[in-house]
Amino acid sequence: MAELTTQERLQPSLLDRLTDDEPGKLEESREKRVISVSRLRECVTRDISWLLNCVSLEANVELEEYPEVSRSVLNFGIPDLTGAALSGINAEALQRRVRDAIVAYEPRLTANTLRVNVNALTKRMDRQALIFNIESEMWAQPIPLNLYLKTEVDLETGNFKVSEGFG
């Protein structure tokens, strides 16, 4: 099999490339310019966690008159769930909002394969917690990778905990 070109190798995201983990070193090693499959999974999981733990601008400001703003990084995140009661949450609407946010802000996932589903059968789901699964293909060479994430939402704090695997 022919070796992958630099463009085809798994590269860190722009944020990861701009973050200097070793400020004392003047040159970056070859290993820092490409990443492993496991490191890619960690980075995507971390970035989705950051996305879901940010409150979108439209949670506080009406953006119907500003469609460009609603699709921009100014609106990064999802509506605030802090203090929400489980009975007052529309699970389908939340699934749709989470999916839309991931499609808009996580280009490493393939949009047409992305599925977000509330897991209503789990033992951990109670009045103050909501658990759902995120499943998608991740862009990779030579073939896409499958990604399965378990996401727990603590409704008291609004904190999302994202981890690999299904719950």
From TrEMBL:
Identify the PANTHER family for this entry.
Answer: CYTOPLASMIC PROTEIN-RELATED, TYPE VI SECRETION SYSTEM COMPONENT TSSE1
What phylogenetic lineage does the species belong to? Bacteria, Pseudomonadati, Pseudomonadota, Gammaproteobacteria, Lysobacterales
Query: What organism is listed for this UniProt entry?
Result: Rhodanobacter sp. FW102-FHT14D07
The record, for NCBIfam families, names:
VI_zyme
Q: What is this protein called?
A: Type VI secretion system baseplate subunit TssE
The UniProt record lists the IraD/Gp25-like domain at 39-142
**What gene does this protein come from?**
tssE
Q: Name one Pfam family in it.
A: GPW_gp25
